[in-house]
Write a structure and sequence with these properties.
The chain is mainly alpha-helical. Helices cover 48% and strands 0% of the residues. α2 packs across α3. Keywords: DNA-directed RNA polymerase, Nucleotidyltransferase, Transcription, Transferase.
């Protein structure tokens, strides 16, 4: 089973796997609660998939200055 979007494509948007997972999980909970997402034609049926698609389409980003190393 191939997961889409791929981790390689996602890491071109957000460099850290930890940040990517944390952001996607938090956004997935928001989508689950509100039933509102920012993807016009989603390919995914899951909340996490929708969150990852938002990241890939750059509708969801991280302010690198606010990330603590």
């Amino acid at each position: 089973m191939i997961l889409e979007p791929s981790i390689d494509k996602l890491q071109s948007k957000i460099n850290s796997k930890y940040t990517l997972v944390t952001l996607a999980a938090k956004r997935a909970r928001q989508i689950q609660d509100t039933k509102i997402h920012q993807v016009s034609r989603p390919d995914s049926a899951t909340y996490v998939g929708l969150a990852l698609e938002e990241i890939l389409e750059e509708k969801l980003t991280v302010d690198e200055d606010s990330v603590i190393d």
